[in-house]
Each structure stands twice: as C-alpha cells, then as structure tokens.
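step 4 of 6: structure.
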Amino acid sequence: MSQRRILLAVTGGIAVYKSLELTRLFKKQGADIRIIMTKSAMAFVQPLSFQALSGHAVHFELLDTEAENAMGHIALTRWADVLIIAPATANTLAKCAHGLADDLLSTLYLAATCPIYIAPAMNHVMWHHPATQTNLKILQTHGVHFIAPESGEQACGEMGIGRMAEPNTIYQRVIADLTMLPILKNLNVIITAGATREPLDPVRYLTNRSSGKMGYALAAAAQKTGANVTLISGVTQLSTSGLHNFVQVETAEEMHAAVFEHIENCDIFIGAAAVADYRPIESPNEKIKKNADQLMLVLQKNPDILADVAALNLPLFTVGFAAETHNLEHYALEKLTRKKLNMIAANWVGREEGGFERDENALEVFWHNGQKTLAMTEKTELAHQLIELIAEQFYAKK
Ligand code: C5P
C-alpha cells in the first residue's frame, strides 16, 4: 500500500489536544501527515507540538509568500488523499457551510477535491442550536463525512453531546475508508437512489420521504472498491461531486428507461431508490384549479424497475431494499422470492432511530441461504459493510 497523505486541519477548541494523539496515530501507521492550524487553535496548543509529531512545519497563513512558494493552498489540497477537520468548531462549520474563504482552512475547504472528514467539537447548547444543525445539513449536501461528537461531561463542566470523537475512532474510520480493497474492480454496478416525483400537474407532484443518502453512500463505497458505478437518481439535495456516471431522472418511468438504457453489461444492480408505486393517471398541462370541494385522483401502477431487471434473466446480481413498518423479515423474504432477487436489505421505518431522512441506519440483509444483521451506524459506514457483503455473495454465486 502506498503512503497515505493526510491533511489535518485543527481549529480552536479544547479538543485540540486530542488531535496531537490523532497525528501520532497516523504517523505510527506510516502516513505522511501535514497540519493546518487556525489562529484560535494556536491559542490552545503551540504549532511546535504538531511540527514535532508530524515532522513538518505547520501551515497557518493564507497569504504567506514563503509557504505559497513551498506548497501553496491549492497544491496542499491536490497533494492530500484526505482532508480531516478535527476538532471543527461551530465557527468553522458555519464558514465552510457558507463558502467563506477568509483564512487558510476555509479556503482549502473550497479548493479541496479529496474526501473531507469533519469531527465537530463544541458545547452541547451550541451543537443543538438551529444555526449549527442547519450548517451540518448544508455540509452534508457537500458530501462531507461526519465523525459524530460523543456525549458526556464537557470541558466546560456541563453534560451533553459535543465532545469530539476519540482520536482512535477518527483514525479507524479514515483508515478503513482509505484501505477499502478493490473487491469490485472493473465490475459495472448500477444503483438507483432517492425518491421519484410523479407529476399531478405542472406545479405539484407525489413523492415520498426518501433522501437518497443510502443510495449515494453505496455509490461512493462501490466506487472506492474499484467498480464502474452508474448512479441513477431521483431529485435529491445531495452532492454528485466525485461520482463517475450520474443520471438525473424525475419519474419512475424515466428511472425505468434510464436503467434499461444502461443495463447491458451490468454485473450488479442495486435498487436503493424509493420508487413511487403509483403515478397520477393524468397529468394535465395546466395547473389544477381549486374549485371542487373534493378531488379524485386516479392512480396508475408504475413499473417495478427491480423486478423487471431481475426478470431479464441476465447474468447479473440483483439487490433490493425493503423499508417496512412491521413484519420486516416476512416482507423482506417475500420480496426476495417474488421479485426473484439475489439479496434484499431490509430496514425499519417510522422508528425513532435510522431510516428515511436520517444519517444512520441498520439493515437486516437476506439472501437465499443466509442472513446478516448490519448494526445501527452512519449510512456511509453501513454502505461499506453492505458493499462488502454484496461482493462476497456475488463471488459466491459465481
Ligand atoms: O415492493 P417494494 O416497493 O416495497 O420494493 C422495494 C424495492 O423495489 C426497492 O429496492 C426499490 O428500489 C424497488 N422498486 C423498484 N421499482 C418500483 C418499486 C420498487 O425498483 N416501482
């Protein structure tokens, strides 16, 4: 394995001391790690400590002629395999979310093309503030990977969520992503994601609560394992940056057509989209007027994309999803058989944790002579685990 190039950005919170340990962990693994500090980070820890541990001078000036000659801010991001911001203060989250570029770190964030990991750290009231929560949502649409803060006693003496994840948690997460084996190298993978929109008229549509996060995470994970991925997606708020082949669709019929256009030579088909089962039978060109007290909608069943793909009898491996509110195993197994799939990943919806619109989920995965539980975790991590399981069963079937 080649030497990993880690760019660690440290911002001004008491958790800065933990990033010294994080630097040491990467160094011990043999990585080349370079450090950026914000002005307030330097109020907590001297740059010299990071210099001694990383073996390189710390970067902190945006407009430093000497630094620009050696390795300027654009060159730094091009050099890195990964950018980690840990600890990330509420201020840094806000700046990155809104695209400010008034210091080295915020400028690097905008210039980065590598994967970005953010480990927030702040007081629990600041964490729960709607401004911070909105910024986290915005950052998610940029494709950032979050390493969630932990709960417990905080430096200020208060109890709550906001303590930066432990250095080993951050280290393990980044290393696991960087060392994904090329288990799907050169295989063609098609993934459907997100909700479809079924127009009622030019203004309104029927849809559902799927965010597309699971499908997008699967596409990123499959790409990391060397697959040639085509993501066919309904309208979502998610970033498509870094995806090799992306097809935007709106309706179930458009998704069906796009899938069939790309299905030739496909090795693995993953139907993660929440496709509308029905569409309005009519969708007039003019806006429906608010005249009658009651309005009847007549719906027409949509094609089942996944079942139609499986029915092609091509030598491909098909994976479906089943989101259920009750009898999870029963319905999942029924879909596995009825749609003639190779694998089905089932999850609960309507429960407190996980599911639609959430960042976390858990899955019960079934195939013809096996089953595995993937425990509640972030969808990005869950996607890696599911891709590994798909690869295992894909080769077992062959
Ligand atoms: O039958 P149900 O909709 O619950 O099955 C869910 C699975 O089938 C998901 O994998 C989904 O992507 C897929 N599906 C599809 N086309 C439809 C409906 C569902 O591909 N019209």
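step 5 of 6: annotate
 - The first strand starts at residue 5 and ends at 10.
 - The pocket of cytidine-5'-monophosphate is lined by residues 192, 252, 271, 273, 275, 277, 302, 304-306, 320-322, 335 (CB under 6 Å).
step 6 of 6: archive
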